[in-house]
Amino acid sequence: MTVFERIYEVVKTIPKGRVATYGQVALLAGNSRWARVVGYALHNNPAPEIIPCHRVVNREGRVAEAFVFGGGNAQRTLLENEGIIFEKDGRVDLKKYGI
């Protein structure tokens, strides 16, 4: 199994209405130093309808500024549609919504 495949398998386990950070996904995929690799993998996601890359946020709970699948506020909209409520500063409360 390739590194990207390992990352995709982890991302597929993030439940609807929850998020994980790039670092958490990296750790669960086998190496805590792969956070940037997680970003590359998600940017190249071959099946966004199966691999919910919108559920991965940065360590501060912020969404990607240039979300590859819809751009702009697409990631935030997808998460809000799953019931996630953003803080006033635009972050997801990782204690409440994190895995």
Helix % is 25-40%
What is the average per-residue confidence, as pLDDT, rounded to a whole number?
94
CATH superfamily: Winged helix-like DNA-binding domain superfamily/Winged helix DNA-binding domain
Straight-line N-to-C gap = 24 Å
What is the 3D shape? globular
CATH domain fold name:
Arc Repressor Mutant, subunit A
Strand line-up across the major sheet? 1-2
User: Low-confidence parts lasting 5 or more residues at pLDDT below 50?
Assistant: none
The string of secondary-structure elements, in order, is HEHHEHH
Radius of gyration: 12 Å
Number of strands: 2
Total number of helices: 5
Strand content: under 5%
Could you explain the architecture of this structure?
The chain is mostly helical and about 100 residues long. It has one domain: Winged helix-like DNA-binding domain superfamily/Winged helix DNA-binding domain (Arc Repressor Mutant, subunit A, Orthogonal Bundle), CATH 1.10.10. The protein contains five helices and two strands, in the order H-E-H-H-E-H-H. It has helices at about 5-10, 20-30, 35-45, 75-80, 95, and strands at about 20, 55. It has a two-stranded parallel sheet with strand order 1-2. Helix 1 packs across helix 3 (about 35-45) and helix 2 (about 20-30) packs across helix 3.
